[in-house]
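Narrative progress, year one. The postdoctoral researcher (J.K.) led the effort to move from monomer predictions toward full complexes, under supervision of the PI. The following entry was the first complex the group processed end to end, covering 183 residues in total.
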Amino acid sequence: MDASLKQRIDDLVASSPVFVFMKGNKLMPQCGFSNNVVQILNALAVPFETFDVLSDMEIRQGIKDYSEWPTIPQVYVNGEFIGGSDILIEMYNSGELREKLAVALA
Amino acid sequence: MVHPDQVRAAISQALPDATVEVEDLTGGGDHLQVTVVSSAFDGLSRVKQHQLVYGALRSELASEAIHALALQTSTPS
């Protein structure tokens, strides 16, 4: 993966303790899976930043190589990739997500 | 689009012991719900478990033959 692209993604991921690569934005998600993640993070009332991959083809492909994960959305907590929509839903339902975010944002 | 049987076969090849269920959510073959139970997931994080399944479906995902894949993984109880 191109070093300058990796640096761009590193910088984005580091820009907020909770960072989401998604289709669309918080107010207008462009995909049901991205919407799931936004709704969960809103429900937990945690601050998070997002990047719209539809606005940038380089990031849209690059983020998949970066995390070795083929789908979007992708959620990062303190720089660590924790999963996409399915995993977030599971972690939300089990209470694990609330706990992880409480620790991450403490 | 892909046939659910192709998806099942690709996952079974990568994870021979796996029990795989594939549900076609829209009938169009590109929105799939897949449940995989395999002892290969033992001790792995959810991200790693899903990465094993994604690895088996790499070409179908890269070509966007599968547009949406809802995935659930677990180990045999």
